[in-house]
């Protein structure tokens, strides 16, 4: 399997090189040269398989040439053996039509664990082959940071520098990062928003000399391997609800577009997906883009769903490339214009390519609260605010009532106890495995959100290439 950049001028790479690189050298994102295709019989054969076996079958085409099936199985078993539920991503029924796909049974209580536990294993396997060292730099709006840090803390050949917007993540989210005191972990709180942090990370990758000197790689969803791992749970859930004999709809609380793009990949592979609902909060750039073709950056508004407080969704570029005809040169010009003006219009081809599968909804704070109350009153489920954004959109979806709708429950409710208590009167407790979080020591740096300050900090602490 070879991978190409969305911006058309970076060399095609195999899976191992793409995993270690993260961002393409031309500033684009990697995608497979072509989508693997699963027949109805192959999808039907996933019925009854464990999560690990499902993962091996779904991901095998993507890792071909870099990992054998036996190696992939070994890495998946190690990654998912740390989850607290044997199903890894269990389904919970809310009513006759609506389901939750619980993605928060990993070590840091968020959906990011599903991909990042595997990514940590992949990094270690590939680096040991090369006897090389990697410097991971990432930006987090809350959950990516803790999941990535947990996945690579203490690994010999990796340093990780994680940026988060100071004061704009929950106390639980911050502590899950800053209480990991492994010698290869560096947390940085920057003065600014998540978009500012993400822009700094991209700038580090685009500084070719800096990126080469420290062998930079990415763990956020610009890394194809992470997105690939998220494709698995769409297959796992859909098969349990009757695929391929019937289509399933998914509602996804969306910030950076990676999680819902994984559903698009599943559909391109042959999974019968009736619709993908892109559920945004009031930071609604994706809703505007899909509904009206208007991809223009606004001011980030702080909300009770901080992981979705984003106005530039990195993975949207992958959809624009694939749905718009895979013209890398044209997309490079389009993205260059967006980066300069912070606004662009989707082309007709991009809008038409997206509308076949995607719909979208903007969910405000009142609708979010009502969804949390409904989940508790109707089904006894205490859900977090991000999952509630997805559920509110799912309940408004315009589809045949016979189509099951699965909402991706992206975080454990205890990560956002104040918002949950305000809506439901229930204050959720942290699971016992992380129950002492608020007694642990914290350590992190506070830096201005400037390229000079952050790169100086990284350069002083990272391991340069030999």
UniProtKB/TrEMBL annotation:
Residues 2-80 form the Threonine synthase N-terminal domain. It comes from the Bacteria. Its EC number is 4.2.3.1. Its cofactor is pyridoxal 5'-phosphate. One of its GO terms (biological process) is threonine biosynthetic process. Pfam families: PALP, THR4_C, Thr_synth_N. Pathway: Amino-acid biosynthesis; L-threonine biosynthesis; L-threonine from L-aspartate: step 5/5. InterPro entries: Ser/Thr_deHydtase_PyrdxlP-BS, Thr_synth_N, Thr_synth_N_sf, Thr_synthase-like, Threonine_Synthase, TrpB-like_PALP, TrpB-like_PALP_sf. Keywords: Amino-acid biosynthesis, Lyase, Pyridoxal phosphate, Threonine biosynthesis. It is an enzyme of class 4 (lyase). One of its GO terms (molecular function) is threonine synthase activity. Residues 87-346 form the Tryptophan synthase beta chain-like PALP domain. The modification N6-(pyridoxal phosphate)lysine is found at residue 112. It catalyses: O-phospho-L-homoserine + H2O = L-threonine + phosphate. NCBIfam families: thrC. Belongs to the threonine synthase family. This is Threonine synthase.
């Amino acid at each position: 399997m070879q991978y190409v950049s969305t911006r058309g001028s970076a060399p095609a790479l195999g899976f191992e090189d793409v995993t270690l690189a993260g961002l393409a050298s031309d500033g684009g994102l990697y995608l497979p040269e072509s989508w693997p295709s699963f027949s109805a019989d192959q999808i039907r054969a996933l019925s009854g398989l464990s999560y690990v076996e499902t993962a091996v079958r779904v991901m095998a085409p993507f890792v071909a040439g870099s990992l054998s099936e036996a190696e992939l199985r070994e890495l998946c078993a190690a990654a998912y053996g740390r989850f607290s539920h044997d199903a890894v991503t269990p389904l919970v029924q809310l009513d006759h039509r609506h389901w939750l796909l619980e993605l928060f049974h990993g070590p840091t209580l968020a959906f990011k664990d599903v991909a990042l536990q595997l990514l940590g294993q992949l990094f270690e396997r590939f680096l040991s082959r090369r006897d090389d060292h990697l410097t991971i730099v990432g930006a987090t709006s809350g959950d990516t940071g803790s999941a990535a840090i947990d996945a690579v803390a203490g690994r010999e050949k990796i340093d990780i520098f994680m940026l988060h917007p100071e004061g704009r993540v929950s106390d639980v989210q911050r502590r899950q990062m800053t209480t990991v005191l492994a010698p290869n972990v560096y947390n940085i709180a920057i003065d600014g928003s998540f978009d500012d942090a993400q822009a700094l990370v991209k700038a580090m990758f685009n500084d070719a000399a800096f990126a080469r000197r420290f062998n930079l790689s990415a763990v956020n969803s610009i890394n194809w391997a992470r997105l690939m791992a998220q494709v698995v749970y769409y297959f796992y859930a859909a098969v349990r609800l009757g695929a391929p004999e019937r289509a399933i709809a998914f509602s996804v609380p969306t910030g950076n577009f990676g999680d819902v793009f994984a559903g698009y990949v599943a559909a391109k592979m042959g999974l019968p997906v009736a619709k993908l609902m892109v559920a945004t909060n009031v930071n609604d750039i994706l809703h505007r883009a899909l509904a009206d073709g208007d991809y223009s950056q606004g001011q980030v508004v702080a909300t009770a769903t901080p992981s979705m407080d984003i106005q530039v969704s990195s993975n949207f570029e992958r959809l624009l490339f694939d749905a718009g005809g895979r013209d890398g040169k044209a997309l490079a010009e389009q993205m260059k214009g967006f980066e300069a003006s912070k606004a662009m219009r989707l082309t007709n081809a991009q809008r038409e390519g997206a509308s076949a599968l995607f719909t979208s909804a903007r969910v405000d704070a009142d609708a979010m609260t009502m969804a949390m109350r409904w989940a508790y009153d109707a089904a006894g489920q205490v859900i977090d605010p991000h999952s509630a954004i997805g559920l509110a959109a799912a309940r408004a979806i315009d589809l045949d009532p016979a189509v099951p709708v699965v909402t991706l429950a992206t975080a454990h409710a205890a990560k956002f106890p104040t918002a949950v208590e305000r809506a439901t009167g229930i204050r959720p407790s942290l699971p016992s495995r992380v129950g002492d979080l608020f007694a642990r020591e914290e350590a992190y740096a506070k830096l201005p959100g400037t390229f000079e300050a952050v790169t100086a900090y990284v350069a002083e602490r990272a391991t340069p290439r030999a």
